[in-house]
Amino acid sequence: MRSPFPHCYRSKDRYGRERWLLRVQGRKAVTIKGRYGSPEFAENYRNALAPIEKRGLGTPRHGTMLGLISHQRILRDWQQRLRDIDAAPSNRSLRNSAMIESTLYKADTLGK
Q1: DSSP state of 10
Q2: Between β-strands 30-32 and 8-12, what pairing exists: parallel, antiparallel or unpaired?
Q3: 7 vs 31, 32, 87, 109, 110, CA distance in Å?
Q4: SS3 (DSSP) at 8
Q5: End-to-end CA distance of the chain
Q6: What pTM, to 2 d.p., does this model score?
Q7: Distance CA 19, CA 36 (A)
Q8: What is the pLDDT along the chain (112 residues), one digit of tens a residue?
Q9: Best label site of 5, 10, 68, 89, fewest CB within 10 Å?
C-alpha cells in the first residue's frame, strides 16, 4: 500500500520524540509539524512540498543524459529553422545570422 505522504520519514530526535521529515532529493530535510495523518500535518506537508512543485526542471546540466536530449532538441529546432529560411528566396543574410546565433549558443553550452 502506498503512503499518503510520499518522501516522509519518521525519526526520533535526541529527546526521544517522534518527528516526521520530508526528504526530497536535492533539498534539505524539512520537519513536518503536527500528528501524522491529521489535517494540520497534511496542510504542513503540502506547504513544504509547494516550492518543489513550482520549481520545475530548470536547465539540465552538461554531461548528463537530460542535457544531451535537451541539446539534441535545440539542434533539431535550429535545423528546422534553417530549412524554413532556405525555402524562402533571397534569405542569405537571415541564414547567416541564424548560423552565427547557433554557433554562439553551442560555444556557450559546450564550454560549461
Answers
A1: E
A2: unpaired
A3: 12, 11, 52, 33, 35
A4: strand
A5: 44
A6: 0.44
A7: 9
A8: 678 888 899 999 899 999 999 998 888 889 999 999 899 999 999 988 886 555 455 677 778 887 878 778 888 887 777 777 666 655 666 666 766 776 666 656 655 5
A9: 89
Q: 46-58 burial by CB neighbour count: b if 16+ within 10 A, else e?
A: eebbeeeeeeeee
Amino acid occupying residue 76 = R
Which residue reads 543524459 in cell numbers?
Answer: 65
Give the DSSP per-residue string, the chain: ---SSTTEEEEE-TTS-EEEEE--TTS--EEEPS-TTSHHHHHHHHHHHHHHHHH---SPPTTSHHHHHHHHHHHHHHHHHHHHHHHSTT-HHHHHHHHHHHHHHHHHHHT-
Strand-strand pairing, 18-22 and 30-32: antiparallel
Counting every residue, how long is the chain? 112
Dihedral of alpha carbons 87, 89, 94, 100, sign: positive
